[in-house]
Specification:
single chain; two-stranded antiparallel ribbon; 23 helices; about 75% helix
Length: about 525
């Protein structure tokens, strides 16, 4: 089993090195064989160890046979398995999407293979310092891929992403230094139980605040999200899909990985309030964007806010809903970025108002885009509806219920705006364009199938391990459908009579480009707030 885990981590890197050194199209095709091998390792060798028992299990060991006190721990449990599955699926559709245009670009393929290796390592390690090293590696590789086009926009966005996220990891490093000072080791299994003493130990409180803010930048907390719109809008569509689907969730993974962290009342209360603010303001900023990719970028902030609301409510169903929404968001947001990226590739146009008639121009792409839209808005019987229903289940405070309604309204209005691109006669941007990128649709079809399978798989898993959840979903579906339709009609009215006039009157209302200095100042303010909150 140890060898299988090492292969899972290092095979993408070995493949990437061979691609880089040999630079042969036939060798480059090995990336598809690689995904089949990784899928086999994950599905045949590791999944039975975790799922085929009366209780969910895990695979754990310490590298080199060292003790937990000094060695790097490896742990694959259901949470790791979920993220490893997301990583595998992500690179499957990314390889399909980029292959027609990048199959001879051995450097780009190498960096993607290295990124897959770093993410697999991150999702299997059980050591706080190893997490730091691997997140730094992911940050560097993501920065290279963001700036790969080498134009002014991508270079500026990539450098901002690199600097701001490096600053985030300095805060994280300060936090784990504090943990090491107190605990004498960095193995999560040994450190996590000690975090309950943070009120009695100022060094633990300082470390906790530093880690929350550092990972909060990675997780795009509102006020700490300032790298995200620039990076998403400047990166190639395939990299935007990885950024939104996986990389922005690294912080969430580490929050969940540090067992006992979320169980601390101060932490899950902070998550609740930060999630509420991120959800509302992310959706609000998205409404006033004119750029297709920036609409999706701000909805990454908003949807992550929903995830943190679920974690902050801390009920069993709420937490499960947050974890389910992690996967659902990975799927439908990746689909939306790939579909929008194809539109931009074909037309060279990114502004919503200049794109009309997509349905007449490209029906398969329009259908895939529509599936992504109905999933993210939580239309009943699509993936987002299940996880959103679980997040708001149970005894939810009234102000959180109000906030969830506001987030849903913001999401509906934004995607009503984006869906206007589907209707009408093809605009000039489309009518003058010949469809030349249909070969990349293979990647779009792949992730569309994943989006459609999310709900059936979630219902099957819930029926297997928590049978009451599927009954709960279907018992609520009639009420939720009626509520959704009322909100949809209200959102259409709000968009037509309030939002459109506001956008015309204040065209720069959603503009938000912040300097690096202001971003660091914002994070320091958040750190001061978190430290005073935990102290």
């Amino acid at each position: 089993m140890i060898l299988i885990v090492y292969l899972l981590i290092f095979l993408p890197l070995i493949t990437g090195v061979l691609i880089y050194l040999l630079d042969k199209p036939l060798v480059n095709r090995g990336i598809f064989l690689l995904q089949i091998v990784l899928g086999g390792l994950l599905g045949i060798a590791i999944a039975p160890k975790i799922f085929l028992s009366s209780h969910l299990g895990q695979v754990t060991f310490v590298t080199g046979g060292w003790s937990k006190l000094v060695g790097i721990g490896i742990r694959i449990d259901p949470l790791s398995f979920l993220f490893l599955t997301m990583n595998l699926l992500s690179f499957c559709f990314i390889w399909l999407y980029i292959w027609p245009n990048r199959k001879h670009d051995h450097k780009f393929l190498f960096f993607l293979c290295a990124l897959e290796t770093a993410l697999n390592g991150l999702f299997t390690t059980n050591d706080l310092f190893a997490i730091f090293v691997l997140i730094e590696l992911v940050t560097i590789l993501a920065s290279i891929l963001i700036t790969y086009k080498k134009d002014a926009l991508s270079v500026r966005a990539g450098l901002f992403y690199l600097l701001y996220n490096s600053w985030a990891m300095i805060l994280y490093l300060l936090g784990i230094i504090c943990f090491y000072w107190y605990a004498g080791n960095l193995n999560i299994d040994l450190v996590a139980p000690l975090l309950v003493n943070y009120k009695q130990e100022p060094v633990l409180a300082f470390g906790l605040a530093a880690i929350v803010v550092g990972l909060g930048i990675k997780s795009a907390f509102f006020m700490l999200h300032l790298w995200l719109p620039q990076a998403h809008s400047a990166a190639p569509a395939s990299i935007s899909a990885i950024l939104s689907g996986l990389i922005v969730k690294m912080g969430v993974f580490v929050f969940l990985r540090i067992d006992g962290l979320i169980s601390i009342p101060a932490v899950h209360h902070l998550f609740l309030y930060v999630g509420l603010i991120s959800g509302i303001f992310g959706a609000l900023f998205a409404i006033f964007q004119s750029d297709l990719k920036r609409i999706l970028a701000f909805h990454t902030v908003s949807q992550l806010g929903l995830i943190f609301i679920g974690l902050g409510l801390y009920g069993e169903k709420n937490t499960l809903g947050a974890i389910a929404h992690l996967f659902n968001h990975f799927a439908f947001k990746s689909l939306l970025f790939l579909a929008v990226g194809l539109i931009i590739m074909e037309t060279g146009e990114r502004r919503v108002k200049y794109i009309r008639g997509l349905w007449q121009w490209h029906k398969p792409l329009s259908l895939c885009l529509g599936i992504g839209i109905v999933s993210i808005i939580g239309f009943p019987l699509f993936s987002g509806s299940f996880s959103k229903m679980l997040i708001k289940s149970g005894d939810v405070p009234s102000f959180i219920k109000l906030g969830l309604y506001l987030i849903n309204f913001g999401t509906l209005i934004s995607f009503i705006k984006l869906s206007t691109t589907l209707f009408g006669k093809p605009s000039e941007a489309l009518s003058r364009t010949k469809r030349t990128h249909d070969r990349v649709m293979a990647g779009v079809y792949f992730i569309t199938a994943v989006v459609l399978l999310c709900l059936p798989v979630e219902l099957w898993l819930s029926g297997k391990y928590m049978p009451d959840l599927s009954h709960y979903y279907f018992s609520k579906i009639g009420h939720d459908t009626l509520t959704f339709l009322v909100m949809l009609l209200a959102s259409i009215g709000l968009y037509q009579w309030i939002v459109k006039p506001l956008i015309k009157k204040f065209p720069h209302l959603g503009h938000q480009d912040i300097s690096f200095g202001h971003a660091v100042a914002s994070s320091l303010f958040f750190f001061w707030f978190a430290l005073s909150y935990f102290a």
